[in-house]
Amino acid sequence: MSSRFDPVKSDKFTFGLWTVGNPGRDPFGEAVRPVVDPNHLVRKLAECGAYGVNLHDNDLIPFGASAQERDRIVRDFKATLKDTGMVVPMATTNLFSHPIFKDGAFTANDPKVRAFALQKTMAAIDLGVELGATIYVFWGGREGSEADACRDVRTACKRMRDAMDFLCGYVKDQRYDLRFALEAKPNEPRGDIYFPTTGHMLHFISTLQHSEMVGVNPEVAHETMAGLSFVHAVAESMAVGKLFHIDLNGQKIGRYDQDLRFGSEDQKMAFFLVRLLEGTGGLPRYDGPRHFDAHAYRTEDEAGVWDFARGCMRTYKILAARAAAFDADPEVRALIAETKDQALDPLLTGGYTVDKARALRGLQLDATAIARRGLGYERLDQLTIEHLLGARG
Ligand code: GLT
Ligand code: MN
Ligand code: MN
After folding, report:
1. So what's the pLDDT on residue 393?
2. pLDDT tens-digit profile of 274-295?
3. How far is the CA of 257 from the centre of ligand 3 (A)?
4. Angle between helices 111-130 and 153-173 (to 10 degrees)
5. Computed from CA positions of residues 8, 10, 13, 17, in that sequence, does the dihedral angle turn out positive or negative?
6. How far apart are CA 12 and CA 101, in angstroms?
7. Every domain of the chain and the residues it spans
8. Which residues of the chain, if any, have pLDDT below 70?
9. CB-defined site of ligand 1, < 6 Å
């Protein structure tokens, strides 16, 4: 039986090949599921109602494959995409699995490693564009250190900037319709990863030669690992027009990168996140793909993987419905209605003028009276909880 929460293509839900294809290996144990053919994953995702699939170069093309092998794999994969109506909105490079990247890729001390990383990324960009990607993600999992004496962090920053400037130039030179999205993570697999949060990335982007084509790809788990508010990170990225892509999953604070089913942890955060992305609060919505970068519990067989995938998408849609009901609730609207003041508002926007400064100095503001007023946020938060738990709306 279908329900209104079952995903459909227009929801724009996507999964990485590495997510539903994750065989469940962890630092303490072997794989618990077989490695599955990417074409099968695409067919099953399409059946589940997904819109698209994302990939690293080596999720599809084995490392070191010959040119003929590559072309055959790409031909078959394109046929599967066509058959299923699935798209590839995002692609990325695996710059972390091969031992050559043990000291980093773009920031490694050995120039040969940095050259190899650029060479591999140019080829992976060509592959992504050939499959239709318009977003290219950079997650620098190995760009970091344990023995900090190995390089000055400023040197690492410069190397990262050189790599981004070069690759932006490559994309422009090829006339590709492709934008970059940088993904932060505080640690794991390195002791400390450079540019550990979305905030660091946003500033780094402002230092690039072609900053207009570079944005961020924040991930729930990564910002939560850093103890930060994911919703704030996403909103601040949107506020400066830099939310180019998003990695949705679940994470308990203070743990290793869990990449759990979306909405399986911290439902209040997930509620505010979906509300933000869907724009039910009134500001513009995010219209890019809703990408789940998560994987099924290690306890699952293949059937459990598809339960996991459907679960991510259904929870998103359930939260979207809850957010819409919340923002339509008259009591909520009354509590968060913006206070308008025709005299003051013009003084508080649009920057400095001498006249504004004079007017502000002359205002009679009764701090004690203003401070006495309660704001009703206890009631507002309780309404949030009641909507979230389905007791209202
Ligand atoms: C890896 C990582 C993810 C990144 C992927 C893109 S690879 O699975 O844990 O967070 O988004 O490189
Ligand atoms: Mn991710
Ligand atoms: Mn993660």
Report:
1. 79
2. 999 999 999 999 999 999 999 9
3. 5
4. 40
5. positive
6. 33
7. 9-328, 330-388
8. 1
9. 18, 56, 92, 137, 139, 183, 219, 247, 257, 293
